[in-house]
């Protein structure tokens, strides 16, 4: 995967960064940490400039997230009711919980999308409920672009500072992401075991 990223950046420059960031947000397993980190390394070598790197990378992130937003908008949260009623235990949700979450998202969606851009995994998946809640496209794009710009800038500057030692960043990011995933898994298991039907 790393070799593919390096080859695409070497071949396409900023275009390669843009395409990789679009793909990364449609297929989350491709790590933005590596893409923007290598971009920062290219800045350190003088092959790229920081501002265009961040702007173009963030434009790719935003476009990739529009894909999931559009799917969520097409589905709409109302269509989930039969599924939630049938599989509520494994979702650890009742339908009134979904309605409360929907109302919260309608009121505070701008900040929710912005903040979630800094969280592993949820950076992309938050676009789905944003679409389901029919969040206004301009607000979604603004929150996505600004939140992603901050995150991408952090990654790009980390690549610039660490240079050829960028692999050290992965040594820290990897365990943190795994740790958060384990905690979320344990939290989900606890909710499944303690979930009670309200019928």
From TrEMBL:
Keywords, comma-separated and alphabetical: Cell membrane, Membrane, Transmembrane, Transmembrane helix
CC per GO annotation: plasma membrane
Membrane-crossing segments per the record: 6-27, 48-71, 140-160, 172-193
Subcellular location field: Cell membrane
UniProt xrefs under InterPro entries: DedA_domain, VTT_dom
Main subcellular location: membrane
Lineage, highest ranks first: Bacteria, Pseudomonadati, Pseudomonadota, Alphaproteobacteria, Sphingomonadales
Topological category with respect to the lipid bilayer: Multi-pass membrane protein
Domain VTT: 30-159
Pfam families on file: VTT_dom
Protein name: Alkaline phosphatase
